[in-house]
Amino acid sequence: MFIGEAIVLRIAVWFRWRADTRPVDFLTHTAFGCFTGAMDWQLLDSLSTEERDDLLAHTRRRSYARGEILVREGDPSDSLHLVESGRLAIRVDTPGGETAMLNVLGPGTWFGELSLLGGDAPVRTATVVALEPATTRALPAAIFADLRRQHPAIGELLLTMMSRRIEELSARLLEAMYTGLDRRVYGRLLALARTYSSDGLGRPVTVPVTQEQLAELVGSTRPSVNQVLQRLSQRGVIELARGRIVVLEPPELVRRLN
């Protein structure tokens, strides 16, 4: 999955099982993509047009049906995936033998940069599942190695990915240890609204996740998360429905976080 992600995931899961009074969330700060028409990855902004086009020309577009597994935890990690369309769930096996959904990726995000480091054969640290029909651009590690020799800026791209992940992981670990449940729910709902919005946060956004899934995403239990959601519903910030949450007032979530 992400460079270094396995370490934080395992640490955070350990905290969750050890700290019964403080369930944790360690993925609120992930960079979510918001689809705005023609696909553009901010990750590639540092490249020239020629370098960007050359890199994308060496990727292979892969399509997935809803429920299809893109990569499985423990499998060899041999390619970087740029998410082009659709939403993907990141899931891991927990110490208790269960499966937890830790994140939702949307267009403009990526996963699998660990495969680009070389050295010993890396493995996937999480299972990635399509929540809806989705497409990615897959870049094999061997081709990336050739490209970085031809274009020094593409080689620096790996450093960019690593530095961004380190920043995200540091923020997640702090949140896991010090942020209360209410704020974690606000942050996750806002991030999901960004992921599922097609034109920004100026209007209501339907987020097709269950309360159980949201509880997994924030590292808590469904009853505890339901209490937070009920308070938001009573204030008209969200609307609860079967299998989805409608964020009626995204700016209010921003205000509560600030």
Given as residue ranges, the uncertain stretches (5+ residues, pLDDT < 50) are 1-37
Second-tier CATH architecture of the largest domain: Sandwich
What gyration radius follows from the Cα positions, in whole Å? Answer: 18 Å
Number of individual domains: 2
CATH first level of the largest domain: which class?
Mainly Beta
Tally of individual helices: 8
Helix proportion = 40-55%
CATH topology of the largest domain: Jelly Rolls
CATH homologous superfamily descriptor of the largest domain: Jelly Rolls
Output the strand order for the largest sheet.
1-8-3-6
Largest sheet data: 4 strands, antiparallel
Query: How would you sum up the global shape?
Result: globular
Q: First CA to last CA: what distance?
A: 30 Å
Mean pLDDT: 84
How much of the sequence is in beta strands?
Answer: 15-25%
The tally of beta strands, per DSSP, is 11
Question: Layout of helices and strands, plus pairs?
Answer:
Elements (H helix, E strand, L loop, with lengths): L4 H14 L30 H9 L2 E5 L4 E3 L7 E7 L2 E6 L5 E7 L4 E2 L15 E4 L3 E7 H10 L1 H27 L2 H16 L8 E3 L3 H8 L3 H13 L3 E4 L2 E4 L2 H8 L1
Antiparallel strand pairs: 1-8, 2-7, 3-6, 3-8, 4-5, 4-7, 9-11, 10-11
Helix pairs in contact: 1-4, 3-4, 5-6, 5-8, 6-7
